Amino acid sequence: MILIAALPVEDILAAAAAKEYADAVLLSDTKGTKFSDKFTASLGELPWGVSIGEATDEQLADLKRGGDAISWSATLKKHH
Question: pLDDT class for 78, splitting at 50, 70, 90?
Fold first, then answer.
């Protein structure tokens, strides 16, 4: 079994708890695709990804460079 913690973006205290108990983190309520270095560093080696509703090609490229996973609704529409 894999435990994936769903966290709000930039919640460093929740990230610390996730490092203790989870196998990975899925960030929710993301408004953008850039996250502070302090926040991503707080995750350490824990794999992380984001759950998105909509994204441009540029935003998807940013996410591919940053996290380990991207989750989206099957009804996601790409915006150009």
Answer: low
> In which element (H, E) is residue 58 found?
helix 57-66
- Residue 30: CB atoms within 10 A of its CB come to 18
**Structural domains of the chain, ranges and CATH numbers in brackets:** 4-79 (3.40.50)
DSSP code, position 74:
T
Tens digit of each residue's pLDDT (9 = 90 or more) over 5-61: 888 877 888 888 888 899 998 887 666 656 777 877 888 888 888 777 777 777 777
Reported as half-sphere exposure (CB side, CA atoms, 13 A), residue 35 has a value of 24
* Identity of the amino acid at 75: T
- Cα–Cα distance list, 43 to 36, 48, 54 (Å): 11, 8, 24
Tell me the backbone φ, ψ of residue 9, rounded to 5 degrees: -65, 140
